[in-house]
What does this fold into?
Amino acid sequence: MNEQSRGTFDLSVTLSTLTDPAPPAVSEWEFETVKRWAEDWLSKSHPDLGRTGAVCPYAGSSIKKNLFRVAFVRGNNLDHNWMVSLLEEIAAAFPTLPPADGPESIYKAVVVVFPDVTEFGQIDAVQAECKTTFVERGLMVGQFYPGHQQGGLRNPDFRALDGPFAMIAVRHMVVTDYPFLGENEKWTGAYFARFA
It folds into this structure.
């Protein structure tokens, strides 16, 4: 796969699709674990979800269209501001990742995997700091990690954000995202500016 189709551009991390080989400094086990999580957890239904359909209705189409990209970042003692800057870099590049426009572009997703991070509060803090500016750009940013305790929208006992590693995901905002934004006036304002 060439660099442009991989979507590396000027990013400080390498983006890979799930059909690529494991990137350098990433074990086959780590890469396959993320792939299985995306394909067998995010993209599938679950009896405890509280609704029909996949855990993430967006992920399956993103994977099938080969637009689900992952980046692995090594290190367990990462600087908060550096992590925020990395996510902002991805948000700024997101519109230019192929496909840049057209109906397929809505299915682009980037999941940044931090396989060495074990202080999951750091992941929550980075996501919380990024969310407003991302939503204002028309992007959603969510965090996943082992043992994530946030309940699902329709079943508070379902842990949709549980994941095998610390991860932060970025994707386009879609009209069905309102329930994730209703608690904040800036978020709802950005949502209605886009969809009303």
About this structure: The CA atoms of residues 45 and 53 lie 5 Å apart. Residues 120-136 form the longest helix (17 residues).
